[in-house]
Amino acid sequence: MRDFSEAQLERYSRHILLQDVGVEGQAKLMEARVLIVGAGGLGAPIGLYLAAAGIGKIGIVDGDTVDLSNLQRQVIHFEKDIDTPKVASAREKMLAINPEIEVVTYQKCLRADNIREIIRDYDFVVDGTDNFPTKFLVNDACVMEGIPFSHGGILRFDGQTMTVVPGKSPCYRCTFRQPPPPDAVPTCSQAGVLGAIAGMLGTIQAAEVLKFVTGVGDLLTGTLLTFDAKTMDFKKIKLHKQKNCPVCGEAPTITELYDEEQAVCNLHN
Amino acid sequence: MQISMNGEKRQVAGDSLTIAVLLEMEKVESPEMVSVQVNGDVIDRTLYQETDIGDGDEVDFLYFMGGGSRR
User: Fold this and answer.
1) Most buried in the list A80, A231, A239, A250, measured by CB within 10 Å?
2) For residue B30, is pLDDT > 60?
């Protein structure tokens, strides 16, 4: 069993006080390795809360730099960070909260030829990207590597999330099959998004990570949680593993990763 | 007939209708941004014209949602 210093006992006391977490749960958090894909609207609260929780090793992937239009919702980036790489800006804030953790940065976009070797170093992956090619790539790679992940999406006033435990629960492709045609997809840059929505959804994803690592409660597996902030209606829709899923079904047709046509890294406006 | 739409009971005229008609009735502007689940089965979008929905069916419209890191 890990020895906690006085400072650690104090820092994590509100976790340790929780009967379901305790020192054992906190020790698990400190041993855990979690990868965050995207240091944007969702990645910001996810990164801050996972750092604060003392997750031992946190990876962040993002090829972008901070832009003025990010600051309305990407709360891990400050005005002074404009034009600096998002991963460096995020790492700085996370270590400022908690210097005990390790933060590994990947200033690149995930592609079919680099994703598997990156995610292999982690116990859990959190998807905070806004483009479907990367969402499907994360799903397929995690299914193939057997690594659990959290899917998250936001648009306008709405959010949705589900947790996937490969082999046990339906994957993202079970329900969503293939990326919609690029011309049909409104992104946050075109359709807009209420800033605080990113915090609402991102913190739900962060809570799923903490639950997964500590084994507390029931994950959002086989469940699509959606909310509409205009009415504050939250809904859970049951999802099912699909036998004909192209990646986790009985006769998968996707056995190797591939990059979707839509350019993942060239969406700058 | 009565169906369930995203968990809510809904009265619909007639005995049956196709997914394509239901998408129109619900004024879904971009059907390609929706995945449709009927009684737990995800329906291939090429079959929307020929898949009937009947009394008591549970239908879920699941919207594609991106969001996050891009500006």
Assistant:
1) A239
2) yes
Distance to chain A for B4, nearest Cα, Å: 12
Between CA A135 and CA A142, with CA A139 as vertex, the angle to 5 degrees is 135
Residue B67 to residue A152, Cβ atoms within 8 A: yes
Q: Measured between beta carbons, which residues in chain A are less than 8 angstroms from residue B64?
A: 132, 153, 176, 180, 185
Of A84, A160, A169, which is closest to residue A127 (Cα–Cα)? A160
Are A148 and A142 in contact by the 8 Å Cβ rule? The answer is yes
Instruction: Give the pLDDT of residue A263.
Output: 44
The CATH number that applies at residue B27 is: 3.10.20.30
Please check whether residue A264 lies inside any domain of the structure: no
Residue in chain A nearest B61 by alpha carbon: A237
Residues of B in contact with A238 (CB under 8 A): 40
- Whole domain around residue A65: which residue ranges? 11-238
The alpha-carbon gap from B53 to the nearest alpha carbon of chain A, in Å, equals: 18
Number of folded domains that form chain A: 1
Residue B71 falls inside a structural domain:
no
| Inter-chain touch A129–B6, beta carbons under 8 Å | no
pTM for the whole thing?
0.94
pLDDT digits (tens, 9 = 90+) for A215-231: 999 999 999 999 999 99
Here the CATH number for the domain that contains residue A175 is: 3.40.50.720
Nearest chain B alpha carbon to A196: B68
What is the Cα–Cα distance from B34 to B51, expressed in whole angstroms? 16
Q: Is A207 strand, coil or helix?
A: helix
On whether residue A250 sits in a domain, the answer given is: no
**Position B69 confidence tier, pLDDT thresholds 50, 70, 90:** very low
Residue A18, domain member (yes or no): yes
| B35 min Cα distance to partner chain A (Å) | 6
Candidate from A23-27, A142-146, B61-65 with smallest mean pLDDT? B61-65
